[in-house]
Each structure stands twice: as structure tokens, then as C-alpha cells.
Amino acid sequence: MSRILRIELRRSFGIATIVMVVVVGAIMLYAAPQRWSSSWMELMMVQREYLVLLWPLAISAGAYQARREHRSKVDELFASTARPRFQRVVPTLGAVGISVVAGYLLMIAVAAPWIWDTARYLPAAAFAVAAVGVLSVIAAAWLGMAVGRLLPSPVTAPLLGVGALAYLAFLPFALEEWLGALISPMADMGSFHDFQTISGRVSAGQAVFLAGLAVAAVVLLAAGSPRARLTALLPALLGLGLGVVVMPHGDDYVYPATDRVAQELVCAPDLPRVCVSRVHEGLLPEVVPKARQALALLAKVPGAPTAAEEKTVTYFEKDAPRPTHGPEIVTIPITVDREGHLAWPGLVVPRMLDAAGADGLGCEHGGAPDEVARAAGSWLSGVEPVAEPEESPETNQEAIALWNDLRKLPEREALARVTALREAVVTCKQTITLGPVKAP
Amino acid sequence: MMRAVSAAETAPTGYAWAVHAEELRVRAGRHLAVDGLDLALGTGVHGLLGPNGAGKTTLMRALATVVKPAGGRLTLLGQAADGHTDLRRVRRGIGYLPQQFGFYPRFTVREFIEYMAWLKEMPKAAIPGAVQRAIDRVGLSGKANARMKTLSGGMQRRAGIAQAIVNDPEVLLLDEPTVGLDPEQRLDFRELIRDLGVNSCVLVSTHLVEDVAVACSDVVLINEGRLVFQGTPDELVAYGDHGGAGDSPAERGYSSLLRRHRGEVAR
């Protein structure tokens, strides 16, 4: 059997399918690596999103393969052989399945070196997301074969591809969110933050539905009579029914869901304490020197922070936990660039120094105005305020003006103003300025 | 009146029939292409003759278990082949070259025959040797690794014969096997089927009466789905003495028998 499978792989459209999936997949991935450069989970989710093209490709490849069977006119010859039809289709099913799976997995292999150094956290959920992706391309390719066998026309493959694209692009949005996510392997795979995950129940529901679809395709392919073809509906409906049972419904369906383990802090071994989220553990070597530099500059402020941590709170969670760290901890702003490294590393220290290390995260009003916070930070570092990328120049101009004003003041006065600013942010004052400090 | 129209009359005593049809009826679409055929075939080479539309291909397809009989009885290798029983064991003993030989064009000759051997459920260990033997027997050793689509029509036909014989079938059904073969290849083919007929029941459907006369030990002539004649090539030739058209004695016998049968049907 393995020898026959190898022959099928070599002589079917297997190699072409692998190349097609890998090339299309790699082009999509590398067209926007910043979408998946921060973590393995992000990569798996983005790959699932790209099923919008890979699925139609897989289904068309299956239909094209089925057309080979039709054009070769082997039905009569094969029907005279001892192997029953369901066994006869195994090598072709195997070859097509292996091809699309190989293509899908090779896509990961092509992307892996890009984030190998920086992406350390590999949760089990990432494997589940990839496994559902694998199952989805198998189901698509086999479904294509089954339909291609029933309708062996030259237009079947392209029409199926267009149909699959329309199915993925439109149908999920016409349904409730959880149901859309069940029937579409690419729905709700968009990434909103680096701690995102897909729950086990969601992956299990999708896997059950797709397995039903794959079995239905096999039954349809092996069926020799119209009645037997009708029985193919059974596994499809069973898969849908079980998937509906397994999938979280209504309020239980959370998107985007957060991975608490990914949010956990991982700290550098020595002091002062510098911690990042587990998902960004690979960035620790880049972050630690900058964070410690910022802590050293902040040290001149009375009551200055003594530790630095990444902010792991997300705004997508229901009842999102408020940040628990106190004023003794300064937030490290972490954004991952397209290479998987720290984005704008030159801005890490300035942003940590903003408002003298106070971020007002626990406040209703959200801390100091940007230009004020930035001017205070720049006074601590002695470096002119630096604009955020794509920021309007006015904000930074105002920050520079305030910074220049601070520099003209005696050092004690300037420090008192900066300290007061920090205190105002920490205590959640509504009006926060760099104005003169009133005598107590 | 023709002789030897029933299988029972021509059956050698104690013959173990590999193929036995009684009142066999087989449809080709809506048309009853085989209509009450009695036929018994044992070891040897049997030539199946008949005009276009006589039901030869439909009969071959029924014997290859590709189509279910619409009525009557069909026994292959001692087992009923009526579509209600498991045909797997029977099919393991059958080799079949359809009139329209389909193949995967990207496969090499060796790969395709190996694939067919797998489909015929041959033991895994026996496949490589059997494939090589089949390729050698049809004279395609030099083309074993050539892709099927690159072969000439005659070579493709020989590959078709190779796949049919790869499992050393007890019943070998060859529908128009000599189409596309050059004269030298036809001579080789005759030699091959004579050799195969020593131990197997070989049924060769063809329009070439001369091939049958030379290579077959038994001639089966059907018309309008019924058996017209079954006998030896000499007996076929003998019918040519009573008239009939054709360049050779066998052809004259063939046409004479057909003419008589048509006359009988008309009456």
C-alpha cells in the first residue's frame, strides 16, 4: 500500500498541489509578517485566516484530481478488479490528503525560521489550531474529489474554488458568530492582541464538523449508487450536530479569547526586576538593558519605580482585570516588529520615562496628557522628546516646548514639578500639568 | 441448420467450466444486448466473433463482472456471478482488457501494472516479480519505465494485455486486443495467448476472423445477443464450403453462419 501511495503521490497532482499551497501560503504570510511575528499562536491563527485562499485551492485541487480519474476512463477496468470501490479510492484520497497537509505544514516550516529566535511560548492550543487547519484542507480536498467525481466537467474545479471562496467570505457573517466560527475554518482567526488564543472547545467543535465533512466526502467518493451517495449526508449532518453541541454558544463563545498562561510574567533572573509576558519571553534579552536604563534614570525621582513589567491587560476581555501593579512598577511598552523583535527599540526608554514612570492605568481618566508625560520623561533622560511613529507633529512640538520650559528651571524646581506630576498620575488626579508646585 | 449451437453439445466430457452462462441476458443501457445466451468455456483459447452490435462487448463486460446480468445464470470459476454474491474471490481470478482501455497517462508502464496488481489483491511479495514477468511477456521490457502517455497505440494495447495477465488469471478476457498491433506484434500476441490458454480460459473478442482461426482452439460466434455457433476453427471453416463471402476459408465460414442465422431469425 505504501508503494502504491508513493506512486500516486508521484504521478497525481500531489507535488503540484504541495508547491501551489506552499507558494501561495508563503506569499500571503510574507506579505505581512507583522501579523504573525509575535508568537506561534499568532502564526497558526493567521495561517487559518489565509484558508480564505487555501481552502478554495484545496477543494479545486481535489476536483482537478477527480477529473483525472474521469479523463483516464479507468472506471471499467478498475471495476473488474477484486478491490472494492472504497479501497480503490484510498491511494488517491491518501495522495491528495498528504499533498494538502504537506503544503499546509510546509507553510509553517517556511514561516518558522522567521520567529524561531523570538517566539518561545508554544501552547497546546496552537497545535489544536494548526490541527483544525490541517483537517480543514483535507476535508476541502476530499470534498473537491467527491464533487469532481459526480460532476466531471472542466469547469467544476474553478467553480468549486469560487464557491468555496464565497462560502468562507460571506456565509459565516450571515450567521450567529459562534455558528459562523463552527462552519468556517477561517472565521474569527483575526488577531487583536498578542495573548490571544482559541479555546479547546472551539477547536474541538470545528474539528468534529470538519471530520464529518471529510467522512461525508469519502462516502460520496466511494458510493456506487445514488442511494449510497445520499448516505453521505449522514456523517456531514452528524458532524454538524455534534459540532453544535461541542461549540460554545451565545455568551459562552468568546472572541477574542485570552490565554492566561501567555499573560503570565517571566522575569530576568537578576535585579532590578524586569518582567515580560510569557508570550514575549524571547524578547527579554532585548528588553532588560533598556528597562534597567529607564529604572536608573527614574531613580532620581522620589518614590521612583524599582521594577519594570510589561502591561498584559487586554481591553477585549469581559470584566478585564485592572492592572494590579502599584507605583513601584513601571510599565514596559512592548510592540513586536515584522521580524519578531522589539519594534521601535529607541522608544522603549522614552516611553518608560513618560510621566516619570507613572501610567495611570488604574485611573478612570487615564493619566497625563501625552505632551506633558513626554516632557517630564525627557527631562529625566536629558534627551529631546521623541515622536511616536505616525504621530501628528503638533503633539511632539508641544512636548518639546514643555521640555524646554522645564530645562530652563533650576534642577530642584524641575524635579519637584516632575515628582508632582508623577504623584498626580499615581493618585489619579483629573488635571495633570507640569505647573509650579504649590507649597503644602 | 447449424451445428453446435448449445454449450452442452460442444462440452467435452468432464470439462470444468471456467465460464458457464445459461439463458444469460445482459442490458447495454435499455437495450438487451445479450439475450438468452448459453455458453460454456473451459481451459483454452476461445475466439469470440460477431458483427458490430452482436453483443460481444456487453458479454465481455458481464463476464468481467462490470455489469450485472439482467437475467439467466452466470457462473464464473464455479461461483454464481449474478450481482448478489461477493465477487471478490472471482475477480481475483479474472484478467480483463476492455475495448476502451483506460489508464493513468502519467504513470510509467511498470507503475500502472503494479497499481493493477494491487487492485487485483495480489500478495505484496509476489507483485514485483509478476509485474516484470507480465512486461516481459508482452515485449515491453525496454519501455517499462516510460510513461504510458508516451507509448504508441500498439504499445499501450500491449501494456493493457500486461495488466490483464499480471495476476495469472484463470479467466482472461481480451476485448479487441490486437487493435493497433503491427503484423509482427500480432504474431507474438497469438503465441502469447496460445501459451496462456494452456492453463487458463482465454476469451478473445475480435473482428479478425483469421486471428481466431489461427490462434484459438475454440470459436464462439454470437449475433443479436445469442449464440450462433461454438466449435473448433476447422468446424468454422467447414461451414465456408456451403457458400459465404470472404478471402479466407474461415471468413467464408463466418459469413455463411451469419447469413444462415439471419435467415432463421427472419423466418
Brief descriptors of the model:
heterodimer; A: about 450 residues; mainly alpha; two-stranded antiparallel ribbon; 19 helices; elongated; B: about 270 residues; alpha/beta; 10 helices; about 35% helix; globular; disordered N terminus
**Overall pLDDT of chain B, averaged?**
87
Low-confidence stretches of chain B: 1-15
Global structural class of chain B: alpha/beta
> Mean pLDDT of chain A, nearest integer?
89
Largest sheet of chain B: 6 strands, mixed
Q: In which order are the strands of the major sheet of chain B placed?
A: 6-7-8-3-9-10
Question: What percent strand of chain A?
Answer: under 5%
Beta-strand content estimate of chain B: 15-25%
Question: Uncertain segments of chain A of ≥5 residues (pLDDT<50)?
Answer: none
Q: What is the radius of gyration of chain B? A: 18 Å
How does the overall form of chain B come out from the CA principal axes? globular
Helix fraction of chain B, binned, reads 25-40%
User: Number of DSSP helices of chain B?
Assistant: 10
- Give the strand line-up of the largest sheet of chain A: 3-4-5-6
Number of strands of chain A: 6
Instruction: Using the CA coordinates, give the radius of gyration of chain A.
Output: 28 Å
Which shape of chain A, going by the Cα principal axes?
elongated
SSE-based structural type of chain A: mainly alpha
